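2024-03-11 09:14:02 DEBUG pipeline.ingest accepted 1 chain
2024-03-11 09:14:02 DEBUG pipeline.ingest length=98
2024-03-11 09:14:03 DEBUG pipeline.predict start
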Amino acid sequence: MYNPIKFLTFLILCCSLSYGQGLYNNGASITIAANTLLKIDGDANGNFTNLTSGSYSGTINNTGTIAIEGNWTNNAGSGYVFTSPYNTGSVSLNGTTQ
């Protein structure tokens, strides 16, 4: 039987235990659409890590804005992050050690 009190308690506990951890791309293709902001908060240990999974390198098609306050690490086998040099989006590195 569905108990809303138990469900809400479970949901609150899960949300409080899962704090911001940045963005970890393990071979996926991410699209940031025009007029979209992807913010990676450095105060919450937010870093961006781009990797390869099998034969798939993580990539980003960016026509929006990426704002990152943590570290940017690209360890993808392809050696690049963006799908094209003609992506019209922007990246703002706002951390203290950028």
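2024-03-11 09:14:41 DEBUG pipeline.report The helical segments are 4-17.
2024-03-11 09:14:41 DEBUG pipeline.predict end
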